[in-house]
Design a protein that fits this description.
6 helices, Alpha-Beta Plaits, 2 domains, alpha+beta
Length: 140
C-alpha cells in the first residue's frame, strides 16, 4: 500500500539517513547502519519496520552491472492489450517495465545486446512504434 503524504511527512532525518545507507548497500545489518547514524541496531530495525509498514521501503534488491543499458519508449499502434504486455514481460533482459502517462504508453529499461535488441524491436513492431536511448556513461 502506498504511503500517504501525512506518513511521508512523519519521516525524519534519521529515516532518510537509513534509506540512503540501504540504497548504497541493502545488505548492511541494522547494527552497521546504527553505528553510522549513532543509533542502536534495535532502533534501526524498528525504524525499518515502520518504513516497510507505511510503504516507503518496498523491497531489498541488488543492482546488476549492465553492459548495454537502454531506455525504450513504446508507443502503441493499437489499443492496449495484455498480449503486448506479456510479450515485453517475457524477455529476461528487461530490467524495468512500466506503464507511463505522457507521450509514450510504456517505458522499458533493458540490457540487450545488438542482436537481442533487434529481435525485441522486431517482435513488438506489429503492435507499437518505439524510440531507443542507449546509455553511454553512467553518471551516478
Amino acid at each position: 500500500m502506498p504511503f500517504t503524504v501525512k506518513e511521508k511527512n512523519k519521516m525524519d532525518d534519521i529515516d532518510l539517513q537509513i534509506l540512503k545507507l540501504l540504497r548504497l548497500d541493502s545488505r548492511m545489518s541494522n547494527k552497521q547502519i546504527g553505528q553510522r547514524i549513532h543509533r542502536t541496531g534495535q532502533a534501526v530495525g524498528l525504524r525499518i519496520e515502520k518504513l516497510v509498514s507505511i510503504g516507503v521501503l518496498k523491497k531489498y534488491t541488488i543492482e546488476i552491472a549492465t553492459d548495454n543499458k537502454s531506455y525504450i519508449r513504446i508507443f502503441l499502434k493499437v489499443a492496449p492489450s495484455q498480449k503486448i504486455e506479456d510479450i515485453i514481460a517475457s524477455y529476461p533482459n528487461i530490467l524495468e517495465f512500466n506503464k507511463v502517462a505522457g507521450q509514450a504508453c510504456y517505458m522499458v529499461v533493458a540490457d540487450f545486446s545488438k542482436d537481442q535488441m533487434r529481435n525485441f524491436l522486431n517482435h513488438i513492431s506489429d503492435f507499437a512504434s518505439y524510440s531507443v536511448e542507449n546509455v553511454v556513461k553512467n553518471i551516478k
